[in-house]
Amino acid sequence: MERTEAVIDLAAIRENVAAMKAGTPAEVMAVVKADGYGHGLLPSARAALAGGATWLGTAIVGEAVALREAGIDARLLAWLWTPDEVETVARAVAADVDLSVSSTWQLDAVLAAAQAAGSAARIHLKIDTGLSRNGAYVDDWPELVTAAAKAQAAAEVEVVGIWSHFAYADEPGHPTIAKQVMAFEAALDAAARLGVVPQLRHIANSAATLTLPSAHFDLVRPGIAVYGLPPVPGSYGLTPAMTLHAGAASVKRVRAGEGVSYGHEYTTTRDTTLVLVPLGYADGVPRHAGNRGPVSIGGRRFTVDGRVCMDQFVVDVGDLDVAPGDPVVLFGSGRDGGPTAQDWADAAGTIHYEIVTRIGPRVRRSYTGSDA
């Protein structure tokens, strides 16, 4: 076993995508942004495609270009970029990467890249239906669509998609969901009147993919669910793909009354054994999960005792027989009764997305499954 290691089950990723694909007639875009939510960009992408995804999505344009340069020939969409990234946008257009366009300045940048590449750029127009994040505001939508229609008529761009993103899909039944669907359909109708009818309409994220078939349209975009972590209660037949563990760096017997770690926020109450785990907040372990974060050692569950430090934390295991190098599991599938990423999210007051995505580069990734 490596000193610290995140083991990624690529078979789980493949099967998670296959399960979602089986539940919809729409195409599936597996979102592999942020280095595959911490699971590894290229391995995750390949496993998702093997599971039936026909599209891959990234926030950052550079990640989409990296996938293309690694030999991925599936359709790719990237959606978050600034005026300072025009060179990367030009590379993306030349590499046949689809780009999201939310404003006329972005459309102008894509048109310049298309002219330089000598081919039409593939774009997806994004409408803000209520998240108030990226996407054209409803008042600006006609101007953007009109400009895109003109560019498409001149064979400078191809409007492949119109899309949006939910704010509350992880709370099924929330009133904003229906309002956003109505706003999305209104934007589609407005675009059609202005001469733009896209090949693909898409708004469904992981939560909507799992719980809202009426919003699947032509394409669904599961992200966190690809990695086996549903954003709504229930398993939905998904399997968490990441297991995070480390080898014990130190094991020592101490007396009752010893303060543990910075600030002595934990004090031993009896003669006991302390296990030092070589993972800390520099590796993505939440510092504010001190005295709460769960671990499994020797098949038994314990918690972090004291503060999580930059490189390490301590676990009081009582009289359990532990030796240096023995495995300490922070989270995994949970099927063996061990802790999960959700357990860590609960301990830290956050979401499981953050737990897996923040695991840092000092932690070695290894892969299991037929796509490894």
Overview of the molecule:
This protein is an alpha/beta fold and 372 residues long. The protein has 2 domains: 218 residues, TIM Barrel (Alpha-Beta Barrel), CATH 3.20.20; 127 residues, Lyase, Ornithine Decarboxylase, Chain A, domain 1, CATH 2.40.37.10. The chain is built from 11 helices and 19 strands. The strands form 4 sheets. Strands 8-7-6-5-4-3-2-9 form an 8-stranded parallel sheet.
List keywords for this structure.
single chain; alpha/beta; Lyase, Ornithine Decarboxylase, Chain A, domain 1; 2 domains; eight-stranded parallel sheet
> What helical percentage do the residues reach?
25-40%
CATH architecture of the largest domain: Alpha-Beta Barrel
Strand order of the largest sheet: 8-7-6-5-4-3-2-9
Beta-strand residue percentage: 15-25%
Summarize the structure.
The chain is of the alpha/beta class and 372 residues long.
Topology overview:
Blueprint: E1 4-9, H1 10-22, E2 27-31, H2 33-37, H3 41-50, E3 55-60, H4 61-69, E4 75-80, H5 86-94, E5 98-101, H6 104-117, E6 121-126, H7 141-153, E7 157-163, H8 175-193, E8 200-202, H9 206-211, E9 219-220, E10 242-247, E11 250-254, E12 259-260, E13 266-267, E14 272-277, E15 294-297, E16 300-303, E17 313-318, E18 327-331, H10 341-348, H11 352-357, E19 364-368
Helix pairs in contact: 1-3, 4-5, 5-6
